[in-house]
């Protein structure tokens, strides 16, 4: 028996990166998958987003693991689109047990002014809330909600040198902090129903978001067109362990644990998979 045998998981941002990894890992352990993704670009995001063929590849990998999968091209900024995807998935797969609100972007283009802020908040924060809230009516005792945060949510950005210079970057931090508070308070409300809600906080993760020129520039602002080779040695500044990043599978293992009955009494947790990044930021406290 797999660790999530017979369960159904709804995963946003499932076409590639962490979302695909989560879908495949949960499928390997027995879950059927409702996989959704935008599958088109957003103008304020300076790297290409997933395409329909990426979502199709996720579906093939889930099927290869022996599980059923329902896919939908859906925008997390639209609760209506997500609700339709969930209802279609449940109609085919019969139930819903796990929610993995994974979809997220890093908005690094500033034109028009403040649009990057709007797109990041709408995707990372409102999109996460949308995904969770369209699922809640379908969840019952034993269900698990998992949102993707970020070690960025744990950083002190109170001393920004140039406020307003990078609205998209500031929105990324704010969105991850705000969704963390949302999930924490949601966990309180759902506890008596036996439904759990937790956040996983990755550090740098080896996905197309990290491996992109806009992200390279954020680590190497001294260069006009930094390459991966230029930026990768600097990635390690985020972690205490001597690594540039973690792999999507490292996050998927945490997601699997939180989705499984092994974590049946774990709720309201901020689980860091950060290579010791938090250790660089804070003194020990209980």
Automatic annotation (TrEMBL):
Keyword NADP part of the UniProt annotation: no
Listed GO MF terms: oxidoreductase activity
UniProt organism field: Nocardia macrotermitis
Stored InterPro entries: NAD(P)-bd_dom_sf, SDR_fam, SDR_subfam_1
EC number, as in UniProt: 1.1.1.-
Full protein name: Putative short-chain type dehydrogenase/reductase
Keywords in alphabetical order: NAD, Oxidoreductase
Catalytic EC class: oxidoreductase
Recorded superkingdom: Bacteria
Keyword Oxidoreductase listed: yes
Family membership noted in the UniProt record: Belongs to the short-chain dehydrogenases/reductases (SDR) family.
